């Protein structure tokens, strides 16, 4: 596939990427805060609807990049402006466009200062995030990748909680230091391949040693972004301090950049090194699942609880990716989408609690459900989804990932131990989520007085309903999603299995 | 036997679900609310009953609700095994609606709307389990039952009920997630689908699977459906007795525990299959394993003075009869085990109904305080005596039929050990039920009781328990109705 077919001459992707930037420019001239909010909401909603065209026109039968756009950018360095998406990036682009209006909605009352700057930051984020998932030129990718950092750090640092500066700085330093390795890898690849085109890089044959170095550079950069255990320490800090919209963006989209990086770069560009490192990455994923679960169980701050649960969920995503089979990778992409939906929703839920009680302490929220039945219903569904209750979206993702893991263990019996180790992780997910749900809905025999607390308003219901629909839609009818992924994942596996004479797992299924 | 597409299956599981919605919507008017509950229960029973003839005629009814991925779907089936469970659960729900209205109003309980809603949802889960066509669907409804019954167990919202509820949820979800889910994933990876087999012999596992893998999966399934009360994961059941008595009656004697046993049996027969279990010699070890539960739980029951606690341990012990019967792998054993699903349901619900009626009428929970109460509550204690006979396995009450077949099965299997277990447990059953009945009728009432004039509880409670006791006798005398299903399973 790898040569993109430039016969489609639509500029859909460019419009998706750059229109938010234009909207941000317009926003700069709007005075009224109310109008600003409305404008951003209307615009992001329009983009979300517009992006459905991608879904409708996407050809599920081919693994080629689609909606490709190529034009000259910096010819002297061989850098092109080239865009395109396959099934994996399609889902992530849609996730991004659909999560944006919800971010605006959940900041409606939460953000009261510097509304204009906030909305502009959000819109710039949208450009950068969509760009990352669409870029087919490594330099273009890197530009978007870095462009995300600053607005995100601002979101945390300006509109965040009490330790916002610390959190913003930690986020910035961690991701920035990861990016340095990515840059080195890009340049090294450029010197070998002679072009920055990602498809070109995928088709090239590299020496094992070179692959190992590139893989490691990729790995550090992406593992920080995921974040994989033990590179995760920036995540709880960033989540706890970020405003609701920041947390939602972080959880729903930014964390996916790391796993997307593994799928787009590590696996196809360095297949040999991937096979060498697979067992190690798998074990790190197992560690993340257990560590995230255990730490989440110990939290009394709701946001920290959800943040650590993210570490565990992303552990499932990386486990699926490095199981290197159809089940695993399809499951991993589904886990990525599901985590975006469910954890995003949970952060909105926590934001709703915070807006009302000005605390996120589990003990203070005890028994809220009694006064807020609608809230309890939403919180219940999302908590159940997060613990992978059957019939919800996360179940199908984790089920596939676990199938992938066992499939891998079938040919590599040593990993059976690893699969047995993740079982307690699955149980832990139920433990910390049900504990939270029990506290929020019931509490204990003496709960704080919540009689003045109001149940969800229309705006909040509107924010959560689309996510609720997705929870059940993906959970009960995942086929449209897996169909989109099918060809791309198959092709990705073929690339990964280009058997190198020295490959240790030449007999992968 | 071609599966026949039948929408009644979907309607059957929708009836309690819609019922739950209506109950919630009409919460402000208690009479309308209870009527909604009853209509949902009656509808469910009628739909279930309408399928009896087709199933006995050898049809295999089938309905696919959601198709998830290749080999994974949420789909329903009605076969002879599902009918044993579905008919008894749906009928008993109808009876319980009356009883529970009497009980909850008699005690002026709080949050009755939540209670009734969750009750209907629990039945939704139970009926879903009865009609599930594959392991995924079974697991889905199994988990729904776990979650929806939590508010019922923790109903009183005091220290004790929160503790009980916590234990309940911990045991049930941890075993389901920790044992069933991985087993299910491995079965999916090995076979490519999770659909139950169409007969009890072949199972669905391909023949080339390593025998140790099969054995491990089997062990996960026996222990993982912890609602079946098999030791060591039985402890949730006595703790769950903090719930109001209608919950203990319908859920912890019929729906929830039977969901556990039914799931275990379903998986034993339709995922592993009799042939595989024979080949790997899994039958008798399982029978001996659950024998421990039968005997130990009976001994613990002896030591309990709280009536509901004694009944709870009796349930733990009786549930294992069902698994024991199936594990014998002989036709008579399987018949005896399966028919006990229904027989135990009718008798045990009577016993719990009685315990609740006694509590509402006299506020007594302990057996030692019940001396002489039989003379003032003749119907209640009469029903209790009949149901006890059934638990012991004496003719002409339902339990006799089960025990007869179980003993036959044990003889066919040629296992002296199991015969001994059955005899010992019968003695123990007598030892812990007979004193209750004896004291009630022949004991000397305390002076306080003699002065205080107790009577029977409200008719809304007494009539249901008389009905279920009467049915226990009827299905003991004419066991053909449930036996015809059980024979059709073989």
Explain the overall architecture.
The complex is a heterodimer of chains A (about 500) and B (about 500). By secondary structure, chain A is mainly α. Chain A contains 19 helices and 2 strands. Chain A has one domain. Helices cover about 75% and strands about 5% of the residues of chain A. In chain A, strands 1-2 form a two-stranded antiparallel ribbon. In chain A, a hairpin with a 4-residue loop joins strand 1 and strand 2. In chain A, helix 3 packs parallel to helix 13, helix 12 runs antiparallel to helix 13 and helix 15 packs antiparallel against helix 17. Chain A is globular, with a radius of gyration of 22 Å. The N terminus and C terminus of chain A are likely disordered. Chain B is mostly helical and about 500 residues long. Chain B has a domain of about 210 residues. Chain B contains 20 helices and 3 strands. A 3-stranded mixed β-sheet of chain B has the order 1-2-3. Chain B is globular, with a radius of gyration of 21 Å. The relative contact order of chain B is 0.10. Chains A and B meet through helix 16 and helix 17 of A and strand 2, helix 6 and helix 7 of B.
């Amino acid at each position: 596939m790898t040569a993109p077919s430039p016969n489609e001459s639509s500029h859909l992707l460019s419009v998706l990427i750059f229109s938010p930037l234009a909207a941000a420019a317009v926003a700069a001239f709007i005075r009224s805060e109310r109008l600003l909010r409305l404008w951003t909401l209307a615009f992001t909603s329009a983009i979300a609807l517009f992006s459905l065209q991608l879904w409708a026109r996407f050809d599920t039968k081919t693994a080629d990049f689609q909606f490709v756009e190529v034009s000259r950018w910096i010819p002297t360095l061989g850098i092109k402006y080239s865009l395109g998406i396959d099934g994996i990036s399609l889902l992530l682009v849609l996730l991004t466009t659909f999560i944006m209006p919800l971010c605006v909605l959940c900041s409606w009352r939460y953000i009261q200062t510097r509304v204009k700057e906030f909305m502009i930051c959000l819109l710039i984020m949208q450009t950068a995030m969509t760009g990352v998932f669409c870029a087919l030129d490594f330099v273009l990718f890197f530009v978007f990748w870095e462009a995300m950092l600053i607005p995100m750090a601002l979101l945390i640092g300006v509109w965040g909680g009490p330790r916002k500066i610390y959190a913003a700085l930690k986020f910035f330093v961690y991701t920035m230091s990861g990016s340095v390795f990515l840059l080195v890898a890009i340049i090294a690849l450029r010197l070998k391949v002679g072009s920055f085109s990602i498809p070109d890089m995928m088709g090239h044959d590299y020496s094992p040693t070179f692959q190992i170095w590139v893989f490691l550079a990729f790995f550090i950069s992406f593992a920080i972004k995921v974040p994989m255990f033990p590179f995760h320490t920036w995540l709880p800090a960033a989540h706890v301090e970020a405003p609701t919209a920041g947390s939602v963006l972080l959880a729903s989209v930014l964390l996916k950049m790391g796993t997307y990086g593994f799928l787009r770069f590590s696996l196809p560009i360095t297949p040999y090194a991937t096979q060498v490192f697979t067992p190690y990455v798998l074990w790190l994923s197992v560690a993340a699942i257990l560590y995230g679960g255990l730490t989440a169980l110990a939290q009394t701050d709701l946001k920290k609880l959800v943040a650590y649960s993210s570490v565990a969920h992303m552990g499932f995503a990386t486990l699926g990716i490095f199981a290197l089979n159809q089940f695993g990778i399809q499951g991993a992409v589904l886990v990525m989408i599901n985590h975006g939906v469910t954890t995003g929703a949970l952060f909105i839920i926590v934001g709703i609690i915070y807006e009302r009680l000005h605390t996120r302490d589990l003990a203070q929220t005890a028994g809220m459900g009694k006064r807020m039945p609608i809230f309890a219903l939403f919180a219940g569904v999302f908590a159940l989804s997060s613990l992978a209750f059957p019939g919800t979206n996360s179940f199908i993702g984790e089920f596939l990932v676990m199938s992938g893991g066992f499939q891998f263990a079938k040919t590599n019996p040593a990993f059976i131990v690893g699969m047995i180790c993740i079982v307690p992780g699955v149980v832990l997910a139920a433990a910390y989520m049900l504990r939270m749900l029990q506290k929020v809905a019931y509490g204990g025999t003496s709960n704080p007085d919540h009689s003045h607390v109001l149940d969800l308003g229309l705006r909040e219901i509107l924010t959560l309903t689309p996510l609720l629909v997705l929870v059940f839609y993906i959970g009960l009818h995942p086929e449209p999603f897996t169909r989109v992924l099918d060809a791309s994942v198959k092709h990705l596996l073929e690339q990964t299995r280009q058997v190198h004479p020295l490959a240790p797992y030449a007999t992968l299924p | 036997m071609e599966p026949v597409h039948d929408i009644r299956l979907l309607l059957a599981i929708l009836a309690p679900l819609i019922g739950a919605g209506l109950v919630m919507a009409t919460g402000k008017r208690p009479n309308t609310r209870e009527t909604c509950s009853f209509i949902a229960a009656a509808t469910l029973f009628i739909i279930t009953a309408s399928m009896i003839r087709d199933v006995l005629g050898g049809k295999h009814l089938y309905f696919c609700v959601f198709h998830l991925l290749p080999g994974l779907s949420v789909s329903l089936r009605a076969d002879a095994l599902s009918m044993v469970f579905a008919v008894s659960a749906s009928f008993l729900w109808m009876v319980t609606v009356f009883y529970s209205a009497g009980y909850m109003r008699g005690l002026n309980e709080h949050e009755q709307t939540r209670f009734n809603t969750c009750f209907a949802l629990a039945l939704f889960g139970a009926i879903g389990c009865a009609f599930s066509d594959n392991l995924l669907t079974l697991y889905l409804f199994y988990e729904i039952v776990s979650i929806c019954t939590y508010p019922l167990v923790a109903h009183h919202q005091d220290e004790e009920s929160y503790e009980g509820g916590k234990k309940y949820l911990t045991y049930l979800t941890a075993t389901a997630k920790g044992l069933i889910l991985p087993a299910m994933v491995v079965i999916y990876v090995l076979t490519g689908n999770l659909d139950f087999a169409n007969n009890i012999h072949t199972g669905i596992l391909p023949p080339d699977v390593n025998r140790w893998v099969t054995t491990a999966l089997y062990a996960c399934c026996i222990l993982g459906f912890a609602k079946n009360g098999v030791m060591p994961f039985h402890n949730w059941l006595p703790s769950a007795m903090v719930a109001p008595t209608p919950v203990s009656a319908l859920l912890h004697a019929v729906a929830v525990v039977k969901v556990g046993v039914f799931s275990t049996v379903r998986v034993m027969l339709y995922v592993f299959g009799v042939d595989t279990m024979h080949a790997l010699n899994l039958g008798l070890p399982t029978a001996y394993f659950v024998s421990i539960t039968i005997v130990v739980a009976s001994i613990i029951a002896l030591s309990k003075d709280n009536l509901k606690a004694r009944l709870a341990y009796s349930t733990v012990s009786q549930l294992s009869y069902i698994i024991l019967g199936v594990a014998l792998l002989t036709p008579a054993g399987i018949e005896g085990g399966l028919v006990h699903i229904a027989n135990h349901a009718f008798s045990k619900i009577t016993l719990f109904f009685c315990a609740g009626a006694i509590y509402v009428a006299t506020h007594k929970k302990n057996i030692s305080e019940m001396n002489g109460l039989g003379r003032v509550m003749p119907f209640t204690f009469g029903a209790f005596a009949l149901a006890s006979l059934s638990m012991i396995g004496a003719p002409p009450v339902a339990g006799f039929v089960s025990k007869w077949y179980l003993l036959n099965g044990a003889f066919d299997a040629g296992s002296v050990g199991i015969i001994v277990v059955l005899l010992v447990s019968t003695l123990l059953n007598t030892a812990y039920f007979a004193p209750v009945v004896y004291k009630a009728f022949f004991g000397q009432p305390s002076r306080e009781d003699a002065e205080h004039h107790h009577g029977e509880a409200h008719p809304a409670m007494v009539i249901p328990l008389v009905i279920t006791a009467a049915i226990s006798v009827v299905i003991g005398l004419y066991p053909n109705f449930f036996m015809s299903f059980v024979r059709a399973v073989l």
